[in-house]
């Protein structure tokens, strides 16, 4: 990008942010980043998320605007379905943007964990928006199957499909990459459905080719197929977001905890739990050590485990480590380490 263009984007708040952050650890399945330095980790990651959301909104708005012009010219219901969904996809930037802004707020006496859960709520709103766009697109496609209309400007129609693909792929790259960096389920889910949208946009080209060959129903059929693809996105996104809302977690996360504990032979994990609060991971772990150990030695073990956890799990925001008896099946009582 030319230097002048980059400066203009930065003036309007769309330039990338500089962070005092870096990733570390070799067992990082989440591709996160554990931040250090004077910049608060949550603010740094949410700034990065907001940057991706802004770019997504700009790209999809431009894409949808260009497609809408061709919809008016061609009368294509397939392109209409794709455009409606691109508009809905751009609109999803709003709840995500609000969620990331709220997540920057410090914990309060009421919200002691902060407002990271707002990201999950934003995910639910996004699912609702996508579902609505699927219903609208499906209705239009079915209506066109019943009441066929002539589709014109086939060259422009095909070009609009390609534009839709390029716009959505650009957004997908932004959202997935940044979502993985900051471990935001909502942002990653939105990125993957943007990628699927890009593929469905290419279906518009196929529909235009079918009409050009003389098969008039190719356009509404493609529109209906795009609708079915959107419903598939709704299902996948809803499952991902609801899993996190119910404190569900990838079993690999517990595997990471076990892997980190293996570097501290004196600590035997009795119980390990973890959950996401927004895009930050919180772990609750009970370990067993020899009862004859002095308190100071037990503290050294918990400190060593905590160090290994943060070293191997860059997305980890907090680790609550409790002590249990060496022969206990379940943790009880104990010492907390943060």
TrEMBL record:
Membrane as UniProt keyword: yes
The topology of this chain with respect to the membrane is: Multi-pass membrane protein
What UniProt keywords apply to this chain's record, in alphabetical order? Membrane, Transmembrane, Transmembrane helix, Transport
Span-the-membrane segments of this chain are 57-81, 87-103, 124-142, 154-176, 221-238
The listed locations are: Membrane
GO cellular component terms? membrane
Domain Cation efflux protein transmembrane stretches: 55-244
Alphabetically, the GO molecular function entries are: monoatomic cation transmembrane transporter activity
Can the keyword Transport be found in this entry's annotation? yes
Mostly located where? membrane
Q: What family is it from? A: Belongs to the cation diffusion facilitator (CDF) transporter (TC 2.A.4) family.
Q: What is this protein called?
A: Cation efflux protein transmembrane domain-containing protein
Q: Name the species this protein comes from.
A: Mesorhizobium prunaredense
Lineage from the top down?
A: Bacteria, Pseudomonadati, Pseudomonadota, Alphaproteobacteria, Hyphomicrobiales
């Amino acid at each position: 990008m030319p230097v002048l263009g980059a400066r203009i984007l930065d003036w309007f708040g769309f330039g990338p942010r500089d962070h005092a952050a870096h990733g570390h650890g070799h067992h990082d399945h989440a591709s996160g980043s554990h931040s250090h330095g004077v910049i608060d980790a949550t603010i740094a990651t949410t700034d990065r998320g907001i940057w991706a959301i802004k770019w997504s909104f700009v790209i999809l708005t431009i894409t949808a605007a260009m497609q809408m012009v061709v919809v008016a010219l061609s009368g294509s219901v397939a392109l209409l379905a794709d455009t409606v969904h691109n508009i809905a996809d751009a609109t999803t930037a709003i709840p995500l943007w609000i969620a990331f802004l709220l997540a920057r707020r410090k914990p309060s006496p009421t919200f002691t964990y902060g407002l990271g859960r707002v990201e999950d709520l934003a995910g639910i709103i996004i699912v609702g928006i996508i579902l609505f766009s699927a219903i609208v697109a499906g209705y239009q496609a079915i209506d066109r199957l019943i009441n066929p209309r002539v589709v014109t400007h086939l060259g422009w129609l095909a070009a609009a499909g390609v534009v839709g693909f390029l716009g959505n792929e650009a957004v997908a790259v932004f959202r997935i990459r940044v979502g993985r960096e900051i471990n935001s389920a909502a942002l990653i889910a939105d990125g993957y459905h943007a990628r699927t949208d890009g593929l469905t946009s290419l279906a518009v080209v196929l529909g235009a080719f079918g009409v050009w060959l003389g098969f008039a129903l190719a356009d509404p059929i493609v529109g209906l197929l795009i609708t079915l693809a959107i419903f598939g996105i709704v299902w996948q996104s809803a499952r991902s977001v609801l899993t996190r809302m119910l404190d569900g977690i990838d079993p690999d996360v517990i595997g990471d905890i076990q892997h980190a504990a293996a570097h501290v032979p004196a600590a035997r994990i009795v119980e390990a739990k973890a959950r996401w609060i927004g895009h930050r991971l919180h772990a609750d772990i009970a370990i067993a050590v020899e009862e004859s150990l002095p308190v100071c030695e037990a503290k050294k073990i918990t400190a060593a485990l905590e160090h290994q956890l943060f070293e191997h799990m860059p997305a980890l925001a907090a680790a609550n480590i409790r002590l249990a008896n060496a022969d206990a099946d379940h943790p009880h009582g104990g010492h907390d380490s943060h």
